[in-house]
Amino acid sequence: RGDSGDALVGSNLSIAFGGVKALQNVNITAPSKTFVGLLGPNGAGKSTCFDVLNGLKTPDSGTITMFGKDVTTMRPWDRAKLGMGRTFQANRLNHDLSVGENLLSAAHLAIKGNPITTLLGFGGPRKSEQRATEAAYAMCVLLGIKDHWHDRVSDLDFGRQRRIEIGRSLMCGPAIVLLDEPAAGLDADDAHALFALLRQLQRDLGLTIILVEHYVKAVLENADLVYVLNQGQLLASGSPAEVAADPVVRAEYLGS
Ligand code: ADP
Ligand code: MG
Question: What is the pTM of this model?
Answer without folding.
Answer: 0.90
